[in-house]
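Progress against Task 2.4 (sequence-to-structure conversion) is shown through the following example record, which the project officer requested during the mid-term review.
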Amino acid sequence: MRALARGEAVLAKWIQEGVLVDANAVADAWNINSPAVHAARKRGEIFAVWAKGKHWYALEALKLERSKLARINRTLGDVDPSSKLLFFLRQHGALGGRIVADAVADGDLDDVVRLAASWART
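Structure tokens generated for the chain above:
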């Protein structure tokens, strides 16, 4: 119970700090409407965590081109959304201590995809 409460508190903090954004922010970033964001989530192009009664999306993921995000997210597969969020937020030794968005910006998408495949197997 305490672990669940701590997890919910962290998500609430990340919502307040803007680490997680709602579908409207994704819609604005992608120049689409909110129903299209939800459809993209269902297709596996983007992931969301559930908190405070709705879906929240990682602002960090919006730093990536939509097609690259979709490739990474689909490679992560059925990994739970909280683990996907951590994948995008943490610095990875396998990426030279970079976060996913920085590695992709540096042209290392294939390395990120390999790491995502490994992450999905653990």
